[in-house]
Structure formats: C-alpha cells, structure tokens
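Review box. Two proteins, two foldings.
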Amino acid sequence: MKEGQKLWTREELIVTVNLYYKLPFGRLHRLNPAVIHLANLIGRTPDSVAYKLVNFASLDPSLKARGIKGASNTSKLDVKIWNEFFENLDILPFESEKLLANFEHMSIEQLNHIPEFELQKEGKTRDQLLKVRVNQSFFRSSILASYNNTCCITGIQQPEFLIAGHIKPWSVDEKNRLNPQNGIAINALHDKAFETGLLTITTDFKIKISSTLLKQKKSKSIEDYFLKFDNQDIILPSRFFPDIEFLKYHNEFRFKH
C-alpha cells in the first residue's frame, strides 16, 4: 500500500459489491456518475472505486467461466468480502442496503423509495415487508444490469416493460431468491407465460414454447408473440448467466410440454 493511502473497510467494500451487482459490466469505470457518487459517499476517489469494481469482476465466477478477466491485484479482504456476499445472497444484499442508507444519511425506506403508507407502522410484520421490498428492488436492479435492460426473449429495452423474473420461483427456493443466476430480464407478457409454464428456456439457452400454444398455429397473435420465438436463442446477459440447474428445474417441473 502506498504511503498516505488508507485501508478499505468491510463496510466500504460491501457497498461497493452492492454497486457491482447494480451496474452493467461495461460501466465499471471512473466516469460513471454512480461510481462518482459512491466514491463521494465513502471518501474515496472514483478511480479507487472503479478499481475495486474491476477487482470484484475478476472474482465473479460467471465472468471467469467465459474467460473474462478483471484486475489481478485483488486483496485478501476483497476476496473475503466478495465470497461473503456471493455465498450469502439471502442476507448480504439487505445488509448492504442498510449500510448504503447510513452512508447516504437517510432511512432504508427513503433509499429504496418505499412510501411509509405501504408499510405497517411498526412490528415484526413491518420489518419483514420492508426486507422483502428492499430485496426485490435489489434483485430487479441486479438482473436488469446483467441483461443491460434488455428482454431476453424480444430484445425490448424499455425498463417499464421489463420484469426481473425468477427461474426457480421465489416461494420454492428461499436461499436463491436474490441469486442473479436465478433471474432473467423478461417482458411482462412472456414473464407470465414463463411463470405458468407456457414457455421455458432450455439448458442450451433456447426458447421452448409449450405444445398448448403450438397447437394454436392459426392464431396470428399467438404466432406473432410466441410461436416465432420457438427454438430461438435467448439474448444472454453480460454476466450471471442463468444457472443450468435452475433451468433444469423449470424445464422438468414448471413447463407444460
């Protein structure tokens, strides 16, 4: 470490990992306003925050699997914090949002734009609802960032039309609710079809349409919105590819063959 430099703290690294999940892979640089903002919050330079983001990219297994390398000078603490976050995605996203709210000097409700009238005044139920809302917001941000705000089926890039859909449902796998490899960016219509098993994604990342819809070949709307996508490749994310095991689950237990 150079003279005059200060060691990074666990809290600073956790909110930086939080930002890593929310930024598209191509935007981990010092000129990004989000990087500049976080740097100001934690008393670091944009260069140093960007460097840590690239360090985390070098630890990201979804990038390693594609042969993409980040920086090679990760510290032991970088590795420790990355592993802690990545291995505890059911806990650390919410903790990171609380830390970020502290750095912002605001409540976690304000940070996540959750109106008070949508939450109960107090008690355990309020805390549980708040955590769910914050986690859902984090998951959506991480999925849309991974897919560069692009629907994996149609290529639509209007965020208002996009949903961060779960491959293995929220109600089925609590541990992987916030795992970005359990998510896809998908438009609302095809999300409903995916959720109800009328559409799936195979383990080689191809779209498969249910026979229920394939039988409706005379319907122009079904042809236009579904049948023309059958056996087409999905638009893959820049990182956090859909996990093969989650896709297998959807193919076997959710899809209406």
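Next protein.
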Amino acid sequence: MMNYSGVALRAHGLTVVRGDRTVLRGLDFAVPPGRITGLLGPSGCGKSTLMRTVVGTQAKVSGTLEVLGRPAGDAALRARIGYVTQAPSVYDDLTVRQNLDYFAAVLDPGRSRRDARRETVSRAIADVDLASHADSLAGRLSGGQRSRVSLAVALLGTPELLVLDEPTVGLDPVLRRDLWDLFHRIAADRATTILVSSHVMDEAERCHRLLLMRDGAILADDTPDALRARTGSDTVEAAFLHLVDQADALQESAR
C-alpha cells in the first residue's frame, strides 16, 4: 500500500511542548522508505517523544509530520505501523506462540480463518528466528529472545513502517549484533522502513541513514559515510562530538 512517493516520513517545524519545556524544537527531516534510519543521541534528547509522535500517541504536537503519505495519528495508519517500546510487550506466563496467537486475534478479531491466522503467527515467529522456542514460556527466555518476541508481535500485521525504541538496550554485544542482523533482513526481505533509536553510537554504523539529536533538535540528517567525511572523523561517534562542539561554539559566539 505504498501510495507515498520517495519519503516514508516528512517533518516540518515539528514541535512538542510538555509543561514549560519544549521537548522537540521545530524539527525538519525526511526518512527514505525501505531503509534503516537510526535516531541517535544521548538519553533525554527527545528520541522517545519523536517516536511517540510518529506513531500518533504524543499530545501537544505542532508543526507537520507526514507518515506514509498521511498525517501522523491518522486512523488509517494503525495497521501500517509496527511499534516496539523499550519494555518487552509479552506475557511471561504464555508461550511464544500463545503470545503471538493472542495478539493476532486482537489485531484481527474474527475476520481471518483460523488456519490463516496460524500461518501469520508461524511466519512472524520464523522471521525473528524463534521457531525452536515457539513452545517455550516467554518468562523463561533471555532478554534478547524476549525482545524478538516483541518484534514478532509488531510484525504480525506486515507493517510498512517499523518503529523500534531502544530495542537493544541492556543486551550483550552478541545479542545486539544478532538483532541488528535481523533488522537488516526485515528491511531487505519485506522492504520495510525501520526507524530505530539508540544512545549507543557504535550502532549508528549499522544504519543506512542517521538523524543525530541533541536537546530536542536535530544536529545532522545524513548517511554515516557522509557524516564522517563532512567532519573529517573516523567514526560516527567522533562526528557527533564534532557537531556538538561546533554547535556549542556557535551558541557561545552568539552570546
């Protein structure tokens, strides 16, 4: 259902105010379809607020944000977006398959044949490489496996846009690598647009494109290669720090 052309997300002047604090400050950016865009920056910079705005659950939003060709929060987008929060969205006392069966029924109550729903569940389990754990209780899985179950839930509706809020937080390097390999496979096999947030800068190297954030503003919107070249840096982390220092120097000179 790709009725949008060239851009999966487009923001102009996107602002979010919470109380007396401006959390997002007039953001302008575009996210290409079918690619992995990393939303990176330190904790508290506004990443989660931006993701809630994308999925349509954030209040007090001004400016414009177009998602898959429609205004963010449009009811028609609900079946087209998968959202994975930081906390795993699973029931510990159910098996992996029972979790997926339950959420599949919630997403499509009574409208699909039972065998079709079972096939959808089995495909989602296979997509996240949990077929060998399908009958294991979710509460007995490792942190990385529980994250995969949450991801499988988000994949049930075959979303065009997958929004992942810090999906690798707290995981060891091997599990983080495996999840990133999975994200790339999903983007390639399904042509899914993935927006993934992190405060771990080395994960930026795994993205096709980056939105670097600080204090509710976007410092850069570019590819990792272009950011490194532009700042003369060896890593994206060094490029980010260069941009931070540059922004601080501009603020200081303006005083």
